[in-house]
Amino acid sequence: MSQFPVVPTGEHVSRQVLSDHPELMVVAFRFENSGAIGALHDHPHVQSTYVKSGRFRFTLGDREQEFGPGDSFVIPSNQTHGCVCLEPGTLIDSFTPRRDDFL
């Protein structure tokens, strides 16, 4: 069990840091409803996303792609990205270096 709190990040979306180190952070994002949105954003961290459950349509730069359970992909530093939840589920994101703004 994580020592970090569950933090709401939007309507029907929350995040929880699972583990962290200055060079790496692992975070669970939980989407409770279809239609929940992970807003478009970018950051200097390299991000790896693993779809633990659910189905999501991601915007990655200028393209869109759907991902489901077991899928994984990497988002380069400073690439605009976001998602729409198609089926409720959980994303496991890893960031390097860690997202100090999440602490």
TrEMBL record:
SUPFAM superfamilies: RmlC-like cupins
One Pfam family from the record: Cupin_2
Cited InterPro entries: Bacilysin_H2HPP_isomerase, Cupin_2, KdgF, RmlC-like_jellyroll, RmlC_Cupin_sf
Occurrences of domain Cupin type-2 (ranges): 35-87
Protein name, per record: Cupin
